[in-house]
Amino acid sequence: MILKSANFSVIFLLIVSLALLFACVSGPHLYLQYGDEYQELNLDKILADNPLPAGENIKVVNLGRSQSASQHIVQIRDREVPHMHNVHDATVTMLTGQGYLILGKNRINLKAGDVVHIPRAAPHYYVNTASEPTVVLAVYSPAFDGKDIFSAGMDRFSAAVLGSEQSGDFGQGLFLRLVDGLCRASDGLSLAGVHDQRVR
């Protein structure tokens, strides 16, 4: 009887020790270097410093950029609207959550750890199917300036008008007001309160 009790105590102590060890381990780290500037970023800290407020659908945090690429943490509560980037390729890594991406005519089911490449000029949008917001690392090439985002099917005149008003910050300008209006008209969704912040 004492032997069984001792074995139970050892197993219980081992389980508690492992639980405490894993509780102390923080989320993924991002290691980025731009020229001589090196950054080690913790995803948990990025999300804590830049929460997606209740009632908001999408939040973008700019991590950094070089001439050839830019990196962004994107939080999506519900879904994106169909859009495309005419001169940017995007590689998206799912960090948390699950959902599906409509890429052209394909539906791609995604979960944490999956990576998807979205070629330039490919119409696409993501739909979150989890109860918590999806968090992704989006890498654009060349570096994304916020101007190359067009409603799928938008004509060139509209694109030129939208590009002329945008401030150059991802997530701002007439385009998002237009998209927000389209979302509200089509299915009651909203991009209200989209934010753009750069981590330093």
Please give a structural write-up.
Mean pLDDT is 77; it is low at 154-200. This protein is of the alpha+beta class and 200 residues long. Strand 1 (29-34) and strand 2 (37-42) form a beta hairpin. The radius of gyration is 21 Å and the shape is globular. Strands 9-6-11-4-3-13 form a 6-stranded mixed sheet, with no helix packed on it. Strands 8-7-10 form a 3-stranded antiparallel sheet, with no helix packed on it. The protein has a single domain (28-198), classed as Sandwich (Jelly Rolls). The protein has helices spanning 2-24, 43-49, 156-165, 174-187; strands at residues 29-34, 37-42, 58-65, 70-76, 83-84, 89-96, 98-103, 106-111, 115-118, 124-128, 134-141, 150-151, 196-198.
Please give a quick description of this structure:
The chain has 200 residues and is an alpha+beta fold.
Major sheet: arrangement of strands: 9-6-11-4-3-13
CATH class: Mainly Beta
Q: What percent of residues are in strands?
A: 35-45%
Radius of gyration: 21 Å
Q: Which descriptor suits the 3D outline?
A: globular
Order of H and E elements: HEEHEEEEEEEEEEHHE
**Percentage of residues in helical conformation:** 25-40%
Overall mean pLDDT stands at 77
Termini separation comes to 59 Å
In CATH terms, what is the architecture?
A: Sandwich
Determine the structural class based on helices, strands and strand pairing: alpha+beta
Number of helices: 4
CATH superfamily: Jelly Rolls
CATH topology: Jelly Rolls
Extended strand count: 13
Largest sheet: 6 strands, mixed
Extract low-pLDDT stretches: 154-200
* Whole-number count of domains: 1
